[in-house]
Amino acid sequence: MPPSTANPFSRFLRARDGRPRPDVDAFVAAWDRLETRVIAVYRAGAADAADAAGFAALCAELEGRYAALAADLAPFWPEVRGAGGADPFRLLLGVPHAAALVGNQAALRALPAAREALNRWLVALAEDDGG
């Protein structure tokens, strides 16, 4: 069973695969943490030192993980509503610092697009016979 993800539907989809995929599990878990941080900063209307450090660390981690998986995720984000033809993962990872999330409607709109692309990718992984 893969590690838990904060998003229950993503957790369900990931469990359907059942095959060990540590790179996928690590990316999904880190993305969950980034999503949680983005929403918290947006709702608070401010980013404190912990938000700044946490956001920077998550982006640094996700940059490397996304670089390794971007080609796998690329077929899925153009199909999602709200992506607007742009890579929602790149949009969020391109936010320069946590304080830039305050009032950032584009970042907030990118979250569901990224999640939908991520979930579509997890469905495809579960349906892939190639393991």
How would you portray this structure in words?
With 131 residues, the protein is an all-alpha fold. It is 66% helix and 0% strand. It has one domain. The longest helix is centred in the middle third of the chain and has 25 residues, at 49-73. The two termini are 15 Å apart. 27% of the residues are buried. The model has no long low-confidence stretch (mean pLDDT 91).
**Beta strand count:** 0
Share of helical residues: 55-70%
The low-confidence runs, each spanning 5 or more residues with pLDDT under 50, are none
* Count of DSSP H/I helices: 5
Structural class call reads: mainly alpha
End-to-end distance, in Å?
15 Å
Please state the oligomeric state of the protein chains shown: single chain
User: Which of globular, elongated, flat, extended, rod-shaped describes the shape?
Assistant: globular
Q: Give, in order, the helices and strands.
A: HHHHH
| Beta-strand percentage range | under 5%
Tell me the count of domains. Answer: 1
Mean pLDDT over the full residue set? 91
Key terms for this structure?
single chain; 131 residues; mainly alpha; 5 helices; 66% helix; globular
Write the layout of secondary structure elements.
Elements lengths: L7 H10 L4 H23 L4 H25 L14 H6 L11 H23 L4
Summed up, what is this model?
The protein is an all-alpha fold and 131 residues long.
